[in-house]
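Ticket #4471: structure export looks truncated?
Reporter: QA, pipeline team
Priority: medium

Steps to reproduce: submit the single chain below to the structure queue and open the exported record.
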Amino acid sequence: MADIHPSLQEVGKALLEAPFIVITSHTRPDGDALGSTIALADTLRELGKSVIAVNQDGVPKRYAFLPCANSVFKPGTIKEPPNAPLFVALDTGAPDRLGDQVWKLVAGRKSTLVIDHHASNQRFGEMNYVDQDSPATGQLIYELIEAMDWPLTPTARDNIWAAMATDTGSFQYPATTPRTFAIASRLLKDGVNLAWMSAMLFQNYPFRRLELLRDLLASVRRSEDGRIASWMMPQPLIKRLGIQPDDHDGLIDMLRSISGVVVAVSFEEEPDGTVRISARSLDADQANVAQICQAFGGGGHRLAAGARVQGTLESVSERFLAAVSQELNHDGTP
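Actual output as written to the record:
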């Protein structure tokens, strides 16, 4: 597979030349994954392109309010596999994170274009536009639209805002740049309803999320030196409360906000016997969670990363927390 590192203009050219395009993002999509997908798909449709937007897990209820969210389909709802020469993977660092059903849907593709901002991206496309300095893939979609002088539709505008707002923690995370605020200012001038978007993104949770937070806070564990905080979500708890994957988005920030904590870790037990790890760091010089997660088969950013590991909650959490402790204590002292 040729690994081409294109410019934004070359990315735009490839999109314009493709007669049919399938766009997707990672499973368990967050605001950046969905916002980027919808924004790019709507922009290309405005330009007269034939586009299908898919996601293996579909659109979580939390993000159903996004404009044109109903234009993102599950692969199983598409009766005939599209003969799409170009397949676009957004906000996804590794091919297995797209899901088997998506790959089956695009089995006849001629080329894969990856647009992403994760430092651990595996460059699995023929063309890979990866900018790890960008705080969100949504920001890259805006940069593409601007570089190509394409129209910014109201749907693209709102979805890019959602993508940037969610992946920057409402413009608070360290990766947020002056350019991010400049783009946000442009989006606001163009008509983003800030109060409504903020309420829908950050103040619109089901009651079960509060119940989950109650139980998680009761189970918080801290290392002896107070620099590591973690909690675990066992399957019985998830089933009892009827927790959906997006219900605990952002809750890990409660752990990271504890004074003295450098690394926060959430362990979620999956029905298939794996454990989903989410890790956050306040200081990448002390603990680069992307590197730690890569050692467990995952990846992400220096300050926010994850992995999925076979094993029990107890065994996986013990191994991972030991790795975090070793990273924090560079001499290996536990």
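Status: closed, not a bug. The export was complete when the record was re-opened. Leaving a note from the reviewer for reference: The chain has a mean pLDDT of 94.
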